[in-house]
Amino acid sequence: MNLEPLDRDAIHSGNISQLCEQLATLSASSLNDSEWPSERLDLLEQADVYRWFIPHHLGGLEWESTQIASAYVELASACLTTTFILTQRVAALRRICASDNIPLRDKLLSGILAGNKQATVGISHLTTSRRHLGQPACRAIAKDGGYVVTGQSPWVTGACGATHLVVGAEMPNGQQILFVVASDTAGITIPKGFNLIALTASQTGPVKFENVFIDSSSLLTEPAEQVLTVSGLTSTGSTQTSALALGLATAAVNFIEQESLHRPDLLESVEALNAQQLALKARLLELASGVTTGTNEELRTDMNSFVLRTTQASMAAAKGAGFVEGHPAGRWCCEALFFLVWSCPQAVIQANLCELAGIE
After folding, report:
1. Which residues span the domain enclosing 88?
2. Residues whose CB falls within 8 Å of the CB of residue 56, separated by 6 or more in sequence, listed in order
3. Quick one: pLDDT at residue 52?
């Protein structure tokens, strides 16, 4: 498919409408929901999207947090799969930018900015009690100027499309290491991703390590008991997942609004959903900017509720056509379930369960 060259100047200034239009076009034309979305990811490279998240002094654009939150909403409304993969690449990028291992940081950033390197992240097991046969999921033993890593990182998105992996492992003394390793290193196996209810094209699944040697020069920071907190970065609970939920909900609301142009019975619902959408976006931007007393968990709870309701409303508006495979309403309903399980705090799960059970 031939697409118009992207206007980088417009995108750098925050006008990402052309990028979103092209993402939506490629997403709608995809015949295989499990196929790695290489063309869509190439668009992100062409648009210099990764520079949004890199500080000025490291060669990036250093977009404001509110600008990034708004961009995530727009991108997710165009293609949730692509935007989800982006968040995982950005998670790795942020860890690299925050690293005190300057030579490693600069080498990786140089490749990422040049477009010949990409990293994704596999660290969720460090913040959970996931263990295998009484041992950590991913284990490291100090040896000869480095570490030997064995086990697996259970949930990694897009490892098949990454040149490097940001991964964590636990040592026998309880300390953890956070390291970067080339994805084609001997001893690393990247199986095909899980067949998920939705977002299968993100190729999310385990990455396995069998006696993989990690040189000490590949550590992003010194070993620590809770290595993810050393840099001050959090691994979960930020506003980005709420932004993705609002993006998917926006796609559903836009569909219902289009249907209402020739179906007056939908106008009241559209008006109510648009009002809720605007209120939630205002809360999102306030929380992203840090000028609100609300919490991430409160926002995430309400975003989960909204994305579930709006996607199901799009199915109701589409009627029988929405239940036929290939209609976007059916895909949106499945994709909305993602927000009940991905990096979802227990308090949010409990609140959503109470709502679904009709408990006030």
Report:
1. 8-114
2. 62
3. 97
